[in-house]
Design goal:
The complex is a heterodimer of chains A (151) and B (196). By secondary structure, chain A is α+β, with helices and mostly antiparallel strands. In chain A, strands 1, 2, 3, 4, 5, 6, 7, 8, 9, 10, 11 and 12 form a twelve-stranded mixed beta sheet that branches. The chains are: A alpha+beta (151), B alpha+beta (196).
């Protein structure tokens, strides 16, 4: 009986979670690693997490690669970002409305190398995507470009 | 001997000074088209809008526009480029009118979709519903999302993990066949699937 109640309660939780899912899932599930070679990890709230193919990223995560590392990330708006060795890429802001394609995508390449193929956010709003380095800001109107950051 | 060591050291350090600049290079896309990137430095700005156009930050904060060679691109960015994820691929599905069955053609497309997903490691997908130009935005948004959700449950039933499937309702914002307002166009009532 107790367990039945728990199951019912669990289902209710699941249903209420579904009601807010369109917002919650977009907020939390912004991208996934599609490529992870050598030493690659994530910094999230002061913690270091290993990154593998299929690992989810959240807005405000930082991607770090070692001397032998490189990584490729696909975002839910189809933006593709990849970094070479000895790189630090901070996702500073990511918002994407999958109905209107409005959003904001700001990242910061603190060091290393980055390749970008912009996606639906930049296509919809020419000023919505920005890539920063310690000494410059890139306004992205599309579509494919490379950045090396001075460190 | 010491002099040589100092000379070598200065050469090495001098060689390092160049890579510490920012470098931005615009690439052509797979179809050969180029976009635009505006590089804003502390004291200058460069607009890149041709293939291999480059911008370098100067020590004084200025931005120098130039052209990068393909060999420089390969040397500096080879690893980053090699780590690029596969390009997302799009599939389009149609329902038989009046029921929940895919058309015969779309059943074949579903097979191609599953094959593409099998080819990729831990892929995630977005199922996007689209409508025709009949009716107002809010109802088309709701309708297109319903179609996407229906396809999500069909795909989940085929064994694709539900947590790897996102859904979106794009309403009538992206017609495949542009039509006037109020035109019922079956080719626009579709579900698109992006595989990443």
């Amino acid at each position: 009986m107790q367990s039945t109640r728990l199951i019912v309660f669990g289902r209710l939780l699941a249903i209420s979670a579904c009601a807010i899912a369109p917002i919650a899932s977009w907020a939390n599930d912004i991208a996934q690693f599609r490529v992870a070679r050598g030493s690659v990890y994530l910094e999230r709230s002061g913690q270091r997490l290993p990154a593998r193919v299929g690992t989810h990223l959240q807005a405000t995560d930082t991607v770090v690669t070692g001397a032998d590392g490189s990584a490729g990330i696909a975002f839910v708006d189809n933006s593709l970002l990849s970094v070479g060795p000895n790189s630090v890429l901070a996702i500073e802001r990511y918002a994407f409305n999958s109905t209107t394609h409005e959003g904001a995508f700001e990242s910061s390449l603190r060091k290393g190398t980055l390749s970008v193929v912009s996606g639906k956010i930049a296509k919809q709003s020419p000023d919505a995507m920005k890539v920063k380095t310690p000494s410059s800001i890139l306004g992205v109107r599309g579509t494919e470009f490379l950045v090396r950051s001075s460190d | 001997m010491r002099r040589y060591a100092a000379l070598i050291a200065s050469l090495v350090l001098g060689g390092c000074a160049t890579p510490s600049q920012d470098l931005v290079v615009l690439l052509p896309d797979k179809e050969g088209k180029v976009g635009t990137v505006v590089v804003q430095g502390q004291k200058g700005k460069a607009v890149l809008n041709t293939a291999f156009a480059s911008a370098r930050t100067a020590p004084d904060g200025g931005v120098q526009r130039g052209t990068a060679s393909q060999s420089e691109v390969k040397d500096v960015f080879g690893s980053a480029l090699a780590a690029q994820p596969s390009r997302p691929i799009s599939f389009i599905l149609y329902f038989e009118s009046g029921n929940d069955e895919f058309t015969e053609e779309s059943k074949q497309e579903v097979k191609r979709l599953l094959a593409e997903m099998a080819r990729r490691q831990a892929p995630d997908i977005t199922v996007i519903g689209h409508t025709d130009q009949v009716g107002p935005d809010p109802s088309n948004d709701a309708l297109s999302l319903q179609r996407a959700e229906r396809v999500k449950s069909i795909l989940a039933g085929m064994g694709i993990p539900a947590e790897r499937i996102l859904t979106a309702g794009r309403g009538r914002r992206e017609p495949l066949i542009p039509t006037a307002e109020g035109i019922s166009e079956p080719r626009n009532r579709r579900v698109e699937i992006n595989v990443r």
